[in-house]
Design a protein that fits this description.
Layout lengths: L17 E3 L6 E3 L1 E4 L10 H13 L4 E3 L10 H14 L7 E6 L14 H15 L4 E6 L8 H14 L2 E7 L3 H13 L4 E7 L11 H7 L3 E5 L34 H16 L4 H10 L4 E6 L4 H7 L10 H11 L1
Parallel strand pairs: 3-4, 3-10, 4-5, 5-6, 6-7, 7-8, 8-9, 9-10
Antiparallel strand pairs: 1-2
Bound molecules: NADP nicotinamide-adenine-dinucleotide phosphate.
The site of NADP nicotinamide-adenine-dinucleotide phosphate has 30 residues, from strand 10 and helix 9.
Length: about 325
C-alpha cells in the first residue's frame, strides 16, 4: 500500500478540544479513535486508511489498539503498522498510540492474562506489528485474578523503564484492585495516567466509584464503547439494518435489542432532536459534559460516521431538565 501523497490538514488542531489526562503532562483529544472493529482482515484496507486520515485531519491524535483486535488476533495492529509505514510515520510524534494485553492472544499458557512473561512478550509482538519503536500507553487489558498484582504492575514499571511504553494504564480493573494497582505504580515512580472503562448512557456503573476514584488518584478516565457499539445512534431505531455490527459481530447480539430498549432509544432520540443533535452526538456530548472524562474512544465503520460524530463537541452543555429527563428515560 502506498500513500505518499497524504498531507494532513494544516487546520487539524483548530476544532478539537484537548483535556489533561489526570495529573499527567499528557493532553488527549476529547474524541479518540478505536481499532477494535472495522480494521480486521475482512474490512476494506483503503477505507480504514481514509478513516484514519479523516480522524487525524480533524485533531484526533489518540488511537486505541490492543494485541487481539482483528479478527484475526493481531490483524488491526498489522494494518495499523502498514498505515504507519505508508503515510503516518512522519507524524509519529503527533500521535498518541495505545495498545493492550490481557485477553486471549496466542496459544498456550503465555498468550493470555497478566503475567510478566505475557505482557512483555505481547508488547514486543505489538511493536513489530505496528512498526513502532514504542507505544505511548500500554494497558493491562483486564485484571488477572490468578497472577499476583505486584507481578503485573512490576512488569508495567519495567516496561516503562525499558522505553517501550511511555505511560501505562488499567482497563476494566475492579475498584479494589485498581486502588492497589494505583498505589503500587505510584510507589515505583510510575504514575498510572489512564483508566479505560466501558461508559455510555446504557452502562453507567463507572459513575459510582471508578471515575471518582481515578479522579482522586490523578488518573484520567477514557470511555470505551461510548455509543454502546452503535445502539446509541439512529442505527437501530427501526430494527436491525443490514451491514450493522449487530449482523456481523458476536459482541453485539440481536437479543440485546429488546422492544423496551428500542422504546428508550426512541425517547432519547426525541431529546436529542430537541437539542438539535443526533442521538449519537447527544450520547457523546452527555459523556463529555463531565470534565473528569478525558476522552471518549469511538469506533467508526465509515468516514461519514466519524464526520457526523465529531459534531458532538459543538454542544456538550445540558440543562438540569434535560439531564433529569435522560435519567428518567434510563431509569
Ligand atoms: N478496554 C476494553 O476492553 C475495550 C473494549 C471495547 C472497546 N474498546 C475500545 O473502544 C473503541 C470503541 O469501541 P466501540 O467500537 O464499541 O465504540 P462505539 O463508538 O460505541 O461503537 C462504534 C460503532 O457504532 C456504529 N456507529 C458509530 N457512529 C455511528 C453513527 N453516526 N451512525 C450509526 N452508527 C454509528 C458503528 O457500527 P456499525 O456501522 O458497524 O454498525 C461503529 O463501528 C474500540 O475500538 C476499542 O479501541 C476497549
Amino acid at each position: 500500500m502506498e500513500n505518499n501523497t497524504y498531507v494532513p490538514s494544516p487546520s487539524r488542531y483548530d476544532n478539537m478540544g484537548y483535556r489533561r489526562c489526570g495529573k499527567s503532562g499528557v493532553l488527549l483529544p476529547e474524541i479518540s479513535l478505536g481499532f477494535w472493529h472495522n480494521f480486521g482482515e475482512h474490512h476494506d484496507e483503503a477505507r480504514g486508511l481514509d478513516i484514519l486520515h479523516y480522524a487525524f485531519d480533524h485533531g484526533i491524535c489518540h488511537f486505541d489498539l490492543a494485541n487481539n483486535y482483528g479478527p484475526p488476533n493481531g490483524a488491526a495492529e498489522e494494518r495499523f503498522g502498514r498505515y504507519m509505514k505508508c503515510s503516518m510515520h512522519t507524524h509519529r510524534d503527533e500521535m498518541f498510540i495505545a495498545t493492550k494485553a490481557g485477553h486471549p492472544m496466542w496459544a498456550g499458557p503465555y498468550g493470555d492474562w497478566g503475567s510478566r512473561k505475557s505482557l512483555v512478550a505481547s508488547l514486543d509482538q505489538s511493536l513489530r506489528r505496528m512498526n513502532l519503536d514504542y507505544v505511548d500507553i500500554y494497558y493491562t487489558h483486564r485484571h488477572d485474578p490468578n497472577t499476583p498484582l505486584e507481578e503485573t504492575m512490576q512488569a508495567l514499571v519495567d516496561i516503562v523503564r525499558s522505553g517501550k511504553a511511555l505511560y501505562v494504564g488499567l482497563s476494566k480493573y475492579p475498584e479494589e484492585v485498581a486502588r492497589k494497582a494505583y498505589a503500587y505504580l505510584e510507589a515505583h515512580d510510575v504514575h498510572c495516567i489512564l483508566y479505560q472503562g466501558r461508559y455510555n448512557m446504557l452502562t453507567r456503573q463507572p459513575e459510582e466509584v471508578i471515575i471518582p476514584q481515578a479522579h482522586q488518584n490523578g488518573t484520567g478516565f477514557i470511555a470505551f464503547s461510548p455509543l454502546a457499539q452503535g445502539l446509541l445512534t439512529d442505527r437501530y431505531l427501526q430494527g436491525i439494518p443490514e451491514g450493522s455490527r449487530m449482523t456481523q459481530s458476536n459482541f453485539l447480539r440481536p437479543e440485546a435489542l429488546t422492544n423496551e430498549l428500542i422504546g428508550r432509544l426512541r425517547s432519547l432520540n426525541e431529546v436529542a432532536i430537541r437539542r438539535g443533535q443526533t442521538l449519537a452526538e447527544m450520547a457523546l456530548a452527555w459523556l463529555l459534559r463531565d470534565e473528569r472524562v478525558t476522552s471518549v474512544i469511538i469506533g467508526a465503520s465509515s468516514v461519514e460516521q466519524l464526520q457526523k460524530n465529531l459534531h458532538a463537541r459543538e454542544n456538550i452543555a445540558f440543562t438540569a431538565e434535560e439531564l433529569a429527563e435522560i435519567d428518567a428515560i434510563l431509569a
